[in-house]
Specification:
The protein is an alpha/beta fold and 327 residues long. The protein is 51% helix and 13% strand. It starts with 5 loop residues before the first strand and ends with a helix. Bound molecules: uridine-5'-diphosphate (UDP) and magnesium ion (MG).
Length: 327
């Protein structure tokens, strides 16, 4: 088998402190993989400058002259981690057979890349990098980050536990992924939807080499919210469940009001008021839930996601066969 071309895709936002430290780690890793004859010499490290306000882009331009392994693209403005990553992956897809996305801060152990490439050579199309434990994180970050995964799963957004955006994707997966036209991106939840054979490799997460995290609690919460609302319509479904519950409670409330008023324990007008309030509360929430169901359906429709993806056929593609025969 021909050796695959690997593109390591690295989004960078205001990373002038880290980049000079970590760039050599990436370079050494890609050289090592080339020397081990796991990947082709055409493999590259692709930096995506996500509209940085510091010298990140100047650094990328400079190092791309130092070694041909380094390449860079720059976005016209800051679009956020997920968009920067997709920009890089879609650019890499043209040349690469496999991509590995990783942060540029050196937190994710690059040695896991060997295992990732091995897993690809064994036939996996997606390899998730999963953090073993979070000993280097503060208790607070650990608690919030792990809570994040639990809540996501609870609300119907399937994500791989403790997996961030360190993963290997094959060209095949990227091509199918490009059919997902949605603008609100939450890669961790979307990639499992693409399917194909996948596996996980485990690594220890280190501390940031330098600089500061761009994911404080506020951004983490908004990422979680983004993930839930763009992957799942479960919150909308909760309204209808709440509606049913409130209706049942209201029903009991109505009976209670009527009984109390017959027993003469109440003042005039109380029972009728309670009955109306209970009735309206139940009806309104139930109706909202029904409308919500439709909105949920509309929401899923407008995403125009592919309905299915074929992974294998027992026959060869005509055009591809011809091309193979010719070339
Ligand atoms: N990043 C980006 N655009 C942004 C914010 C972050 O491209 O708007 C990049 C950043 O340079 C880094 C990665 O996304 O390579 C992860 O960010 P960070 O390390 O700050 O997050 P944490 O690891 O603390 O969750
Ligand atoms: Mg980081």
């Amino acid at each position: 088998m021909e050796k695959p071309t690997l593109y390591i895709v690295i989004p960078c936002y205001n990373e002038q402190e880290v980049l000079p430290i970590t760039k050599d780690l990436f370079l050494n890793k890609i050289k090592e993989l080339v020397n081990l004859e796991k990947i082709s010499v055409d493999s590259r490290i692709l930096f995506v400058n996500d509209g940085s306000k510091d010298n990140t882009w100047e650094i990328i331009q400079k190092i791309s002259k130092e070694s041909e392994y380094f390449k860079g693209i720059s976005l016209s403005r800051n679009r956020g981690h997920q968009n920067a990553l997709v920009a890089g992956l879609m650019t890499a897809k043209e040349k690469a057979d496999i991509t590995i996305s990783i942060d540029c801060d050196g937190q994710d152990d690059i040695n896991a890349m060997n295992e990732m490439v091995d897993a690809y050579l064994d036939g996996c199309e997606v390899v998730y990098g999963v953090r073993k434990k979070r000993t280097t994180d503060t208790a607070f970050k650990r608690f919030t980050a792990e809570g994040f995964y639990h809540i996501m799963n609870l609300l119907g957004a399937e994500v791989v536990f403790n997996h961030a955006d360190y993963r290997l994707l094959s060209k095949r997966v990227l091509e199918e992924f490009s059919e997902f036209k949605e603008v609100n991106l939450f890669l961790r939840g979307l990639i499992p939807l693409v399917g194909f054979k996948s596996t996980s490799v485990y690594y220890d997460r280190a501390e940031r080499a330098a600089g500061e995290s761009h994911y404080p609690l506020k951004k983490m919460l908004s990422l979680a919210f983004e993930g839930i609302t763009s992957l799942s319509v479960k919150p909308i479904k909760l309204i209808i469940e709440l509606g049913v519950l409130i209706s049942m409670i209201s029903f009991i409330g109505v009976i209670w009001a009527v009984v109390s008023s017959i027993q003469g324990k109440t003042i005039v007008g109380w029972a009728s008021t309670v009955c109306i309030v209970c009735f309206m509360g139940g009806v309104q929430l139930l109706s909202l839930g029904v409308i919500g169901e439709y909105i949920g359906k509309i929401y899923m429709e407008v995403k125009q996601r592919p309905r299915y993806i074929i992974s294998e056929k027992t026959w060869a593609d005509e055009r591809k066969k011809e091309k193979d025969e010719r070339g």
